[in-house]
Amino acid sequence: MIRHTALFTGYELKKSFSNPIWPLFGLMQPVLYLLMFAPLLKSLTPGGTTVDALRMFTPASMMMIAVFGSLFSGFGLIAELRNGSLERYAVSPAWRPAIVLGRVAKDMVVLVVQAVLVLIGAAAMGVRIGAVELVLVLLLMAATGLFASGLSQGLALTVRDENGMSQTLNLFLLPIMLLAGLFVPISFAPDWMKFLAPVNPLYHAVEAGRALFDGRLGDPSIPIAFGVFVVLAVLTTMWSMRSLGKIAG
Amino acid sequence: MKELTSPMIIQAQGLRKTFTTRSRKGAQTVEAVRGVDLGVAKGEIFGVLGPNGAGKTTTIRMLATLIAPDAGTATIAGHDLRKEPAQVRRNLGYVSQAGGVEDTTSARAQVMMAARIFAMADPARATAEVLDRFELTELADRPGRTLSGGQKRRVAIAIGLVHNPPLLFLDEPTTGLDPQNRANLWDRIRQLREAGTSVLLSTHYLDEADALCDRLMIVDHGTVVAEGTPSALKREVSGDVITLRVSEPERAAETLKPLARETRVDDDLLRVYVDDGEHTLPALLRALEERGLGLTSIALDRSTLDDVFLAKTGRSLRDAGAAV
């Protein structure tokens, strides 16, 4: 089981990096967000300095990368459904969940590299964060990414169509993004939005991330976010593994 | 131990599969496979011939453990299809109609991955060997999307064979290939027989079934309509077929009935099935002349598998394929 998962993870990673331009573009994205959004947000933040803005925006950008990067990874699965390679793996002795788990694990590896880049960028611009907080932020990001990646693979295997998949994702992305307070904190929002925000799981991840960057380790948002995302990640990963059984159709 | 005693590598009885599709018009059921018995001997190339939609792919997918049959049993390489799917998969090479060659990765990486999944002792060597065997070594490091249709097919088969399975499934292996690539692939499939690999292949090409298969079965609407060696099947219909274009085919058929095993009218074409075409032809021409029937053209051919299909189903395989 573990051998096959490792095998598929390695294979997917090699595939991702066989043309290094695309992963490079993917890695550039978070750094660009940091460079271009932080100055815009400066006037909105209470302290008014770049570091204050970054402290608010860095955790948000990390969660955003976790969700956005991983949500689109299921498209690869649709291509493999069509070219028959998924079917071929299903008729091999491979442990079937490994086919999906390998992709999810690949997404996690890419996320960690992206997170490290963001943190280096933020540190270079003056943001400091404690070691415990750092580890917790990375773990939270991984759980968020796991949720999104599992959701994406499951959706791909259920929808089985690039068009349907991109429409479905677009429908959900905007409300999820705005209701999480990614760019503008929810505290600026009208009451009905404040009321709706806690329904959005990403809101909790962003709140917890901000608490961690502020060094508020005792903040209740942290256990809430971990609780929400561990449960969601387990659910979506299990869903994606079960959806694989439908390959035969 | 069963493998040692049984001469058959596949033995299936009463396979059935019904699909339910839901659309706006409500649920529709399609009986894709309706009780198929099938036996493939070790080392032979066995063909499943039939028009599109006859249930060929569904049958192969059931035998490949991809979909569970609604009814029926099968033993493959000595293992029960339902109870030991993992053992069945280990003994199987499966090349689907789509092929399963990925666009972004090289042929070598894909073959190597298959070798690793099958836990080959030396995956690199097994990969190099099978690539060499299919003359792919020079193309091996190019990404899949740069390969031609024929090259992709060879990669697909190389992936399916890297673990040296005793049994290979080929679902419509030459569909979409040009004549040259088809002939090339036929030679390679024949070489598999020499190497002792059993092959189950599906096709809707008559010439392919005729040229490649030791034995075959003809399927239509999910049932087996005929089974045997290509020559035995053709003999069963008749030795030769005389195709005539005449002014009054119905009357001509009536006239020629005493000379023929069977006659069949198809628009203005009249097919006359006879045992010995060369010797029947003079008598046939005389009979037409006596009745004053105008003859536009005449052709004498050995009967083909299409004549078998026509005799069993009442329609030509070419028409049946085009209709779907």
TrEMBL record, chain A:
It is a multi-pass membrane protein. It is found in: Cell membrane; Membrane. One of its GO terms (molecular function) is ABC-type transporter activity. Residues 21-247 form the ABC transmembrane type-2 domain. Its main location: membrane. The chain crosses the membrane at residues 21-40, 60-79, 108-129, 135-157, 169-188, 222-241. Belongs to the ABC-2 integral membrane protein family. PANTHER family: NODULATION PROTEIN J. One of its GO terms (cellular component) is ATP-binding cassette (ABC) transporter complex. It comes from the Bacteria. Signal peptide: none annotated. InterPro entries: ABC2_TM (IPR013525), ABC2_TM_bact-type (IPR047817), ABC_2_transport (IPR000412), Nod_factor_ABC_transporter (IPR051784). One of its GO terms (biological process) is response to antibiotic. The keyword Ligase does not apply. This is Transport permease protein. Keywords: Antibiotic resistance, Cell membrane, Membrane, Transmembrane, Transmembrane helix, Transport. PROSITE patterns: ABC_TM2 (PS51012).
TrEMBL record, chain B:
Residues 10-246 form the ABC transporter domain. Its main location: membrane. Pfam families: ABC_tran, DrrA1-3_C. It is found in: Cell membrane. The keyword Nucleotide-binding applies. It is a peripheral membrane protein. Keywords: Antibiotic resistance, ATP-binding, Cell membrane, Membrane, Nucleotide-binding, Translocase, Transport. This is ABC-2 type transport system ATP-binding protein. It comes from Nonomuraea fuscirosea.
